[in-house]
Design brief:
mainly alpha; 44% helix; elongated; Caspase-1
Length: 90
């Protein structure tokens, strides 16, 4: 959500050409939560049962491979941003 807030704050502004008072103003979403407990989302690879048929096992391995690739890419992008002098984590 932080990266979404940052993108909206930097890239967007209001568009109300008929009302100069509101036109071209910056906007940012506000996150409000009523959660009172920590929420954990299980890893996609570990949450899939092991007692599957052969076709489902193949799909499970594809999902796990994709999740691993996505995690590596997010890590690479995060390191690249840090090297550019931006200390923002995705």
């Amino acid at each position: 959500m932080t990266s979404v807030n940052r993108r909206v704050a930097i890239e967007y502004q209001s568009y109300v050409p008929k009302n100069e008072r509101f036109h071209g103003k910056k906007q940012i979403p506000s996150i409000v939560s009523m959660l009172t407990r920590l929420v954990y989302f299980p890893d996609k690879c570990t949450s899939i049962p092991n007692d599957l048929d052969d076709e489902s096992k193949e799909k499970k391995s594809q999902v796990c491979e994709k999740v691993t690739q996505d995690a590596k890419e997010r890590s690479r992008v995060s390191r690249t941003k840090e090297n550019d002098g931006v200390s923002v984590r995705n």
